[in-house]
Specification:
- By secondary structure, the chain is of the alpha+beta class.
- The chain has two domains: about 375 residues, no CATH class; about 70 residues, no CATH class.
- The chain is built from 15 helices and 15 strands.
- Helix 7 packs across helix 8, helix 9 runs antiparallel to helix 13 and helix 11 runs parallel beside helix 13.
- It is globular, with a radius of gyration of 25 Å.
Length: about 475
């Protein structure tokens, strides 16, 4: 499976009725930048090695907790029945009354009530995760812990893990997108092209999907429903693993494999490697459904990010800017504003409630029940800016082919901006001990940086006018009718 973009021009002739008829010259892809294949192979090796190293570091944190015990922060153990919710907060997963709290009645008896049965407006009793006294205390404890470990390996490790995976996903996805972009016409297939109208709808469709998941989890959040969501997501991820393996196979062999069969309903060719990858993905999906293992989660997440950045293309810079700005406000509202409207932080509720690879997980410490606790980064915070950066990388490829630059100027500088935006996000998150909308910081960094580079090089108009046509195979060059309309 390959994506495609390139250059194509249109000429017009008059027919017998005096109307204009359009003909197009054959598609000619830009020259593939020298050394691109070698760079990609090295980057894939770095990604694999880095993933393995951090996976081993995460596994090294595991410390078995005896059954019926709870491990305190000082390393000592207490009996699980001695867990004091007034001091230690809500009951943990290894407690028989996890997600419950005790209610004492006037007649001296008591009963157990599910936390979700409490009204969104409260009051929240002791043992409920939104109990005000506990929230204040847990905030103080977390701020103190973040301050004490900010320069220690325990505090740096999850953040370095986050930076490595997110940065490599965008860098590899963008460069592999250029590799597919410069594929020979005979072996190239159309990619998914986003026009301006698609970019306008991104925040709307994203909001509908997010809020729909929130309602499902809140009112129908049974084990069966959660399992159905998990199975649906990992099934799609299995196909992504197959497609990525075929892309990697074509990169290593420097040739596209011949199709083994064609899936009629999807109108998609499948190679032997891709079919094998789908089978491997299916086994991983089964393992994930059974264990919810964070390593499998991250393999699926990385695969999804790479696939999205490689095969989704934006038509022009303006479309990318619209997409980023729209999702900037989307992210800010659903993280900061949704609680005042819906009584809960919708983004965090969905991210933590959906047990599926919709985010990357970074182990940071052991919990008292012997399970790893994780920091997380949503896949959208990688794919959305990644698609925009991939567009800039393709513009770099065209300029390299014209000998107008000697390196990936736009890609490299925007990648530095992306890393700085993640550092800013993590720093603010640790300082305030609260979830942060990553796009709040990513969008200004990448937009301002790319515009600044274009202005400094005197290429602003050229970058703004650079267009990928909505055609099959995808084309670049003169403006399409839609882009003229947008202008």
């Amino acid at each position: 499976m390959t994506g495609s973009e390139g250059e194509q021009t249109a000429t017009h002739t008059a027919d017998g009725n005096g109307t204009g008829a359009s003909t197009r010259t054959p598609f000619v892809p830009p020259a593939r930048p020298a050394g691109l294949r070698g760079d990609l192979l090295r980057l894939y090796v770095v990604l694999a090695a880095g993933s393995v190293i951090f996976a081993l570091l995460g596994l090294s944190m595991l410390n078995p907790v005896p059954e019926g015990k709870f491990q305190m922060k000082d390393g000592s153990f207490i009996n699980i029945e001695d867990f004091d919710v007034a001091e230690l907060g809500p009951y943990p997963k290894c407690h028989p009354h996890f997600e419950e709290h005790e209610v004492r009645h006037e007649n001296g008896t008591s009963s157990w009530v599910k936390n979700k049965a409490v009204s969104d407006s409260g009051p929240f009793p002791v043992g409920h995760p939104q109990n005000p006294e506990w929230q204040n205390r847990s905030h103080e404890l977390a701020v103190k812990e973040n301050y004490e470990t900010r320069f220690q390996w325990a505090g740096l490790q999850p953040n370095l893990h986050l930076l490595l995976l997110a940065t490599l996903c965008i860098l590899i996805g963008s460069k592999h997108g250029v590799y597919l972009f410069t594929e020979a016409s005979a072996t190239r297939e159309p990619a998914q092209l986003l026009q301006s109208e698609d970019a306008y709808m991104f925040p709307v469709m994203g909001s509908i999907t997010l809020f729909g998941l929130f309602l499902v989890l809140k009112y129908l959040g049974t084990d069966f429903v959660k399992m159905a969501i998990t199975v649906a997501v990992v099934s799609l991820c299995s196909f992504g693993v197959g497609a990525n393996l075929e892309h990697l196979n074509a990169l290593v062999r420097d040739k596209v494999s011949k199709p083994l069969l064609r899936i009629p309903y999807l109108d998609q060719d499948v190679t032997v490697i891709e079919l094998g990858g789908i089978c491997i993905g299916g086994l991983m999906a089964a393992a994930y459904v059974y264990s919810k293992n964070w390593i499998v989660n991250n393999i699926f997440g990385i695969s999804f990010c790479l696939m999205g950045i490689k095969v989704i293309a934006i038509s022009n810079y303006r479309t990318g800017a619209i997409m980023l700005v729209g999702l900037f406000f989307y992210d800010v509202f659903w993280v900061f504003g949704s609680k005042s409207v819906f009584g809960s932080n919708v983004m965090v509720s969905v991210a933590t409630g959906v047990e599926a690879p919709i985010k990357l997980l970074f182990p940071r410490k052991m919990g008292g029940c012997g399970m790893l606790q994780h920091s997380m980064l949503g896949l959208g915070d990688i794919v959305v800016p990644g698609v925009f950066v991939a567009f800039l990388a393709k513009f770099d490829a065209v300029k390299l082919g014209q000998n107008a630059m000697e390196s990936y100027v736009y890609l490299n500088t925007t990648m530095v901006a992306y890393v700085l935006s993640l550092v800013t996000t993590v720093s603010v998150m640790l300082f305030f001990n609260a979830a942060q909308p990553a796009l709040l910081y990513i969008v200004p960094f990448v937009l301002i940086t790319s515009l600044s580079v274009a202005i400094s090089r005197g290429e602003l108009k050229e970058l703004w006018d650079y267009v990928i046509e909505d055609d099959a195979p995808e084309t670049t060059g003169a403006k399409s009718a839609q882009d003229k309309k947008d202008s």
